[in-house]
Amino acid sequence: MRKLPYILPLLLTLLVVGCGKQESDLPVNTRLGGEFTLTDHNGEPFSQSQLKGKVSILFFGYTHCPDICPAVLARVAQVYRKLEEAGEADQVQPVFITFDPERDTATHLKEYLPWFKADIIGLTGSLAEIREVAKQYGVVFIKDQEEQDYLFTHSDYIYLLDDQGRVRKLYPADFTIDEVVTDAKSLL
Amino acid sequence: MPRACFNALLAGAVLALAVPAYAELTVSDPWLRAVPPVSPTMAGYATLNNTGEAAVTITGVSTSVAGHTMLHNVKTDDDGNRRMVHLHHLEIPAGESVVLAPGNRHLMLMKLTQVPAPGDTVEICFHLNGGQDACAVFPVKRASQSDG
Ligand SMILES: [Cu+2]
Q1: Contacts of residue A176 in chain B, CB cutoff 8 Å?
Q2: Cβ atoms of A82 and A177 closer than 8 Å
Q3: CATH topology of domain A23-186
């Protein structure tokens, strides 16, 4: 017990050094991202600055897409669950931005997203607003009219944003769940 | 009758009817990706095996839960953008298999009249060029193993 006063500063030093080393080595992407305001699934205005203070996993899609989009949603949900198990989910926010505002209204997103059980914020808006955000993130989407329905040609990256809203990493739609979990943790 | 029982009966009936009659196209590892109940569409996957001695062409697909069912392909352009395109025909050479998988060729169920839940099963029939049908029972699953 008498040794404690000597050990304490050492422990503190180690702790400080340890915390310093936690700094993520993911580079800040200065080409992509930026401030935006859209409408969330509750019909309220939602600005990108509201994501500050949390690490966010941002991705685009549309709910009428049955193949790649629900697969990405399911995978993001798995990332979220792993972070939940680690007790860190409250510091991470998944965000889904639709590029089909015509069909993906706030009401529809509010009914659609909770099924994935990942506390996903759904964002919609006017087509012009969404085009602007898509441009900021380098997302391409083209509406294809096919028969009585329409589909989209689209890029399908997933974006990891740090707690200041800066893009730190991009992943393909078939990303490795553990990679995103590890990267997200490195930003906490 | 509970839906699960009905589905099981349906599955049994379909198996009893479909398997012996149309042996040249078999369907293995079928599954449908579970989607939220408000989803208007869902996708299906399977491996289609032509066990016969002649090429088989799938000319259409149908199921009772969807108003419109199609075979889709996914094309990636030079910029990495992906789009789904309607496959009007799918030819499977004799003795070969075609895989329908996420992010690849898939079944697209549109205008769903009812959204089956995880654990439910759905019968889907492939219409073949000879006028025959090859049907299979697709279980609804949350995700495949490949989804991690
Ligand atoms: Cu499709």
Answers
A1: 148
A2: yes
A3: Glutaredoxin (3.40.30)
